[in-house]
Amino acid sequence: MSKLQTSLDRLRSELQHLESGDAATRQHIEQLLTEIESHVAGAGDARRRGTVVANISDAIRRFEVEHPKVTAYLGEIAAALG
Fold first, then answer.
1. What is the pLDDT of residue 76?
2. With contact defined as beta carbons under 8 Å apart, do 37 and 8 qualify?
3. CA atoms of 81 and 38, how far apart (whole Å)
4. CA-based angle 20:23:24, to the nearest 5?
5. Per-residue pLDDT tens over the stretch 34-56
6. Cβ distance 41 to 23 under 8 Å?
7. pLDDT at position 16, please?
8. Of 68, 75, 60, 72, whose CA–CA distance to 28 is shortest?
9. Quick check: 43 and 15 in contact, CB under 8 A?
10. Which portions of the chain are predicted below pLDDT 70?
11. Which of 19, 51, 55, 71 is 20 to 30 A from 36 (CA-CA)?
12. What is the rounded CA–CA span in Å between residue 14 and residue 70?
């Protein structure tokens, strides 16, 4: 299994542990995961990769204080895509 896939799996697992009050966070991260997986599956070009990485960076800044594990996995994913 690739490092990227491992990080995606860890992020999905971490999402299962978010409390019900974090529905907006969960939804945002799930949408980002869908975007990442679509890009990885070949639906994205180099320009799209830049957008995906930028979206990941935005999510890291947004969630870094409240969800450090989520942001750590997002960082791994961004590094793998970069």
1. 93
2. yes
3. 13
4. 155
5. 999 888 887 557 778 888 989 99
6. no
7. 85
8. 60
9. no
10. 1, 20-21, 43-44
11. 19
12. 7
